[in-house]
Amino acid sequence: MSQASGHTGDRRISLWNDPRVRSVAAQVFLALVLIAFYFAIFQNLTENLKLRNITSGWDFLNKTAGFDINTSLTGYNSNSSYYEALKAGFLNTLLVAVLGIIFATVIGFIVGVMRLSKNWVVAKVATAYIEILRNIPLLLQIFVWYGAVLKPLPGPRDALSIGGVAFLSNRGLVLARPIWGDGAWMGLVGLALALVLAVVIGRWAKRHQMATGIHFPARWVGAGLIIALPLAFFALAGWPVTFDYPELGGFNFKGGATIVPEFMALLLALSIYTATYIAEAVRAGIQAISHGQTEAALALGLRQGLVTRLVVMPQAMRVIIPPLASQYLNLTKNSSLAVAIGYPDLVYTGGTVLNQTGQAVEIVFIWMAVYLSLSLITSAFMNWFNAKMRLVER
Amino acid sequence: MKKYAWIIGAAVSLAAAGAASAGTLDDVKAKGFIQCGVSQGLIGFSNPDAQNNWTGLDVDYCRAVAAAVFGDASKVKYTSLSAKDRFPALQSGEIDILSRNTTWTMGRDTAQGLKFAGVMYYDGQGFMVKKALGVDSALKLNGAAVCTQTGTTTELNLADYFKANKMEYKLVAFEKNEEVLAAYQDGRCDAYTTDQSGIYAERLKLATPDDHLVLPELISKEPLGPLVRQGDDAWFNVAKWTYYALLNAEELGVTAANVDEMMKSENPEIKRLLGVKNADGTAQGFGTGIGLSEEWAYNIVKQVGNYGEIFERNLGQSTNMKIARGKNALWKDGGLQYGMPIR
Lengths: 394, 343
Prior knowledge:
The structure holds two protein chains of two kinds. Chain A is an alpha+beta fold. Among the domains of chain A are: 2-45; 82-136 and 261-389, Orthogonal Bundle (MetI-like fold), CATH 1.10.3720.10. Chain A is 66% helix and 7% strand. Chain A has helices at 2-10, 19-51, 82-115, 120-133, 138-150, 185-212, 218-236, 261-287, 291-299, 304-334, 346-357, 360-389; strands at residues 160-162, 166-169, 172-175, 177-180, 241-244, 247-249, 252-254, 257-259. By secondary structure, chain B is α/β, with parallel strands linked by helices. Chain B has two domains: 23-121 and 223-333, D-Maltodextrin-Binding Protein, domain 2 (3-Layer(aba) Sandwich), CATH 3.40.190.10; 125-220, D-Maltodextrin-Binding Protein, domain 2 (3-Layer(aba) Sandwich). In chain B, the strands form three sheets. In chain B, strands 1, 4, 5, 6, 7 and 13 form a six-stranded mixed sheet that branches. The chains are: A alpha+beta, B alpha/beta. At the A-B interface, helix 2 and helix 11 of A face helix 1, helix 4, helix 6 and strand 10 of B.
């Protein structure tokens, strides 16, 4: 700083040759060109829309949609607005993306570790799974899963009953839906209390072990608490819950909650396909850890499971997380293939809205904005997670 | 700041230049063919045959427009479009005319910047069910899962119909027709719904068409016709009067086979339709008035036939569809097809 102010005092440089002025000017110039470019596009667009008598603007969002969606989390119906339709689609996208990410991660980690197994059969099964499924286009897999889910299942009249509370047919999985009565909040209180207690016990156990060297099974106790306490509180409140059992009436099941086959097929395809890539990232991460680490840990007398969990994995995570993040982004974006099998995600509902209102520009803008923000949020979260898992040098 | 103002200025003028475009009729004449938007395969309306040539009622309409403009019905290129993509394709200028079993509605005719030129086929939405279900009326479909194509008026009619009759249903909608039919066959839904003409066409694709029943109810009005962009009157006129010429030719008994003979007819209406010159050698002037040649209607009938011939060839008793003229008969035969007079 002092240097910069110093040398202007020494000799005057013409503005043209001042690197700082030049750099600022270049940036301003670039920014203006960009603004002019987007302005021109926008101008061209509005001009042409007007010329062709195509309505534009956002008023359509409040109009009645008039069409139905086969599964939504929001209680959407045909009397709802276009905005509600898009929201229902967005939540469906979010649901399949989040569950897909969870399943893909679990499967991916298991298969990735399996591929490195010393057991020949286990390793080859994992290799075959990865090499076959990641080399078949996802859209094809979605169709196959849809056929595989749909074709062998019986019609609703001969649905497979699972203990009388769930029925599986080609209309989906119909489950008994719980209806919470008065005092159901007691269960939540129990859960909150159990969580707090589990954390407290965990901390105490760690201090206790540090101080005395005696191990206390805090995890088991915590898990037991989390299961038992809410149940106990619920029992105290007198089981304030009734179930809405699905019943076969006419064509389909009435009542209950339905998981549609389109959702199952899409979730299966997305998780299984993305898991192959995650498995490879996991394998790369593990192989990046020098074998000396494992040997050293074994020499200290740690068991194989502990070596993987305490020594290898924490270090491998640093290599695994960055590619994991891009797989999560891929999965989210790939979920838009839902439209092929009629799962009402954002692209599907947006497409219907587009067709009815004719407002292509607005809808495409919404699509871009939503997928972009979803991706940026996922990215930001993974960056944060990456920073947290980074090697902390002492 | 002033230094860069010219960039913005240039960009704006560029945008303005881009917005102004010549009329579609001139563009079409200049490029030498018509880009016609059709379906992804609907028997009787627009469907590729064994030699991969497009055939059908909607296709013949596009051929008629080409005959009127170029005197050659083969100067058409086809773009196969899903229900969802059809309007953006027309609005953006990717196609010149959309002839894809599309329902004429107010929203499309006004706010969406489109103009319907006529009704090639008066249709209504119907249902098909498996005979094994034992359903004989759409009013017995309470609680059914219904398969249809997304991005169509069908979805809306369905919601309206079930609401009006206080019934419930589950919608299962796909983007492509093949998937709708496959899902119906696999039992994903109890009923299949679309325009009734489409149901007859799709039923032919099923393994055993006789196991499926088309229910008698029509739950909506579906006037299907060709459409063009708004604000291009010259091209709109060509689209509209090609349709009327087809109807007038049928009404006057002018067919592809007898059109040359009809050129010698003394009937003034036929003379006006076919652009036969007056006794003093002056032209009738209807062809030039619309921006085409005097033989425009002659070429249509000679190369494509009249409306009745087109209907019979694609949908009539000689085809698998076996659809009766019904509402699509000429007005004088009790139908709705009414060609505005050429004079």
